[in-house]
Inverse folding.
């Protein structure tokens, strides 16, 4: 039986592929487990320097598998465990030290909408259907939208999308900062892969440090955020990658980062 999430690796880029096309890539417990496991594998592989998150078939993801959810939603302990698994899996994607690029086509509703929010960069199809959807059915957006969406697009926009359950057109998603680019559907994976390939040429140590600084400063005022990032900056600037970058700058050549060569 095919795995619910595939891990493919080539040329410094890993692809995490939601692989339940017959279920519109609905997210079930096995999907959550494999997301965590594959992120752990990526973290242990110095050859992977960027990640694309995408879906097989017609859509990115229609959200949680409601058949699996229906068996536990009436059991508070079981549902709490499911939510914890969900948060752990999505937090693992968000905390991945490698830059992550979501390639979103077809549909990204509810949990699928929440999954692409945890990626660093997002490319969406210009005809993609995007939205939280939970409010349409009297449900709570427990996968993270109530916390992450306002941080991405601002409080007012997020409140409308969460309280109404309405969709946001791809062009509006780009304008709001929810996605970086909207491209024709048949170009989404290629464009996301191109962006990931570029990110894979950058210093893995610098990428990881920048992501740690962004996380450390989230929710803090600027002064506190700068204080939180200072030790991260100091540690990175003492690294071999920083020395290689400075040397390349002075010599006006392309840098060769030791952590990209397996030397750091």
């Amino acid at each position: 039986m095919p795995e619910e999430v595939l891990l493919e690796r080539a040329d410094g880029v890993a692809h995490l592929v939601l692989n339940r096309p017959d279920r519109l890539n609905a997210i079930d417990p096995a999907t959550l487990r494999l997301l965590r496991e594959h992120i752990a594998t990526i973290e242990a592989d110095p050859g992977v320097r960027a990640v694309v998150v995408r879906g097989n078939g017609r859509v990115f993801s229609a959200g949680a598998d409601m058949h699996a959810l229906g068996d536990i939603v009436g059991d508070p302990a079981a549902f709490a465990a499911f939510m914890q698994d969900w948060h752990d899996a999505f937090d693992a994607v968000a905390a991945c030290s490698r830059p992550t690029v979501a390639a979103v086509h077809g549909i990204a509703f509810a949990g699928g909408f929440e999954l692409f929010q945890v990626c660093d960069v997002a490319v969406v199809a210009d005809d993609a259907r995007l939205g939280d959807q939970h409010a349409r059915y009297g449900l709570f957006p427990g996968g993270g939208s109530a916390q992450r969406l306002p941080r991405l697009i601002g409080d007012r926009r997020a409140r409308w999308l969460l309280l109404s359950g309405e969709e946001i057109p791809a062009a509006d998603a780009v304008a709001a900062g929810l996605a970086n680019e909207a491209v024709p559907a048949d170009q989404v994976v290629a464009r996301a892969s191109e962006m990931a390939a570029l990110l894979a040429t950058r210093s893995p140590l610098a990428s990881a440090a920048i992501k740690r600084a962004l996380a450390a400063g989230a929710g803090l005022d600027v002064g506190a955020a700068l204080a939180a990032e200072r030790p991260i900056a100091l540690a990175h600037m003492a690294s071999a990658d920083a020395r290689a970058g400075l040397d390349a700058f002075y010599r006006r050549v392309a840098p060769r980062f030791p952590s990209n060569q397996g030397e750091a």
The chain has two domains: 5-200, 204-260. The beta strands are 5-10, 13-18, 50-55, 100-104, 107-109, 121-125, 129-131, 167-168, 181-183. The mean pLDDT is 94. Residues 28 and 65 are 5 Å apart (CA to CA).
